[in-house]
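To close the chapter, one final illustration. This time we ask the reader to focus less on the individual chains and more on the assembly as a whole: which components sit near each other, and how the overall shape emerges from the parts.
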Amino acid sequence: MARAAVLGRLNWRAAQLVAVHGESATARTLILDAPGWPGHLPGQHVDVRLTAEDGYSTQRSYSIASAPAGARLELTVERLEDGEVSPYLADELRPGDRLELRGPIGGWFVWHPGDLDPVLLLGGGSGVVPLMAMLRTRVATGSTTPMRLVYSTRTPDTVLYGDQLRRLGERDSALRVELAYTRRAPEGWQGPVGRLDGARLTTLAWPPTDRPACFVCGPTGFAEAVANLLVDQGYAPERIKTERFGPSGA
Amino acid sequence: MRCAPQRPAAAGKGMAANPADQRLGVVVDGSDEDQEELRGHLRDQRGAGTAGGAAWAIVQLHDQGEISNDTLYRIRRDLDLEDSGCQIWVGLFRRRGRGYRGAVRQAERCADPSLNTGSETMGTVSPGFRGRRVRPGPELPPGQYLVEDFPVLSAGPTPRIDLNKWELTITTQTGQQHRWDWDAFRALPTQSPTVDIHCVTKWSKLGTNWEGVSLDTLLDGIETNASFATAESYGGYTTNLPLEDLLDGQAWIAYRFGGEELEPIHGGPARLLVPHLYFWKSAKWVRGIRLMNQDEPGFWESLGYHNYGDPWREQRYWGD
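The assembled structure is written out below.
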């Protein structure tokens, strides 16, 4: 693989929280203003650095949830009970407060809007965040690339971007959004409840012969299981990109 | 130990301090005299009001001896570090290793404000953020945090590898190939290194136990004047590094972790283990090492990640 032009150093830049948007009981979206933000591709992430008043600081990585839009950047943060950073971001950071960002990072788990191959997005839990950036970029660029999102979530209460996903799926015939509930489905739900299996995947996804570009993102157990399912079903391993996060992504 | 308020000599031990900037770089070995001298020096700095606030002490050890936990505890107590915001980093390196030179450079950076801008050290404050109030652990490189579990990061599906067809190949720059099947590989002498591992995604795991074959063993008798190496994996992953980073007890092909067979999600049946570099260099599912005259960026190195990846110099991304 040829190396692209070497970028300059990714500098830390100050960003200000403009607004917050609750997504679920445990997750919220931070809308940030990051002057000088160089733009990003959907699927990339940022490093976030928090510094306390006495100089103590720590860093974590978060996926970008928004399509590129100037200096505006959205991160969706799920609160992990034993986390050092996520409870602060999910509960305490207030509009006007500042933090530091470095990015965009990662050139692999990205969707290029110019790609015309059908795209199969498989998200588990908050693994839907970078996939949402891809869907939003699809809308923002007017792309007609067929996309399908299979979003595995525990219950109706844990769904992120629920209303927005419904609207996206309704008004765009080349986009399909499928929810898969692993523990409890909403009332009146016709489909099965439980972890994705091969049979379910077959009904939700394009056949392997369509050679979709597959993006799998979620906790390690989800990403591992789904990537294995895809390989079992005959999808080409080299067309499957994964992004995994363990319980330590706090 | 040298205590001159100058930048330490790059190849030796030394100490540097910059009172005006309240930052401190220290390079010592672990002899008893050095440990006492270090405590005294830090106490003096503290007394002069130059080791509080944003002071950083980088303590460099090597295989001549280690600074004991007791000394570290006493240093922290002497300096009231828990209240001062002062942090101590300790790195344990072999003097010949790259990590050693990296830590010396890190000490220089800390002692020299022109090499390390103040805004980088004291960044934007986020009101109300306190964090865990756990100081970076003694062996933690900058920007890392400790984990107890073993997170998994892979760019694609876990490859399925049949041990009967498994093969490890070392290819020299002239195309000469040396091959081991699983039985031949497992018949080689083994080592059981206990090492710290540092992932570029910020987690570090200390004191991990591995079993594997040293690259010194595998490369023994192979004639090469190559300067670089690329590790190649089942599944297509590649990563590049200088050949010297694979030598002198710094790298292994590991097949056991924590006393158990290495799980496929962690790179089993066998992975490269180069713990002094960020962990993406420790290629999972390794199938070969290609020796080369010229450096060629591997998978992540082509996608924005640093070509060398020294955690002690925080070389995460291009340009770091």
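Residues 1-7 of chain A have pLDDT under 50 and may be disordered. The radius of gyration of chain A is 18 Å. With these observations in hand, you are ready for the problems at the end of the chapter.
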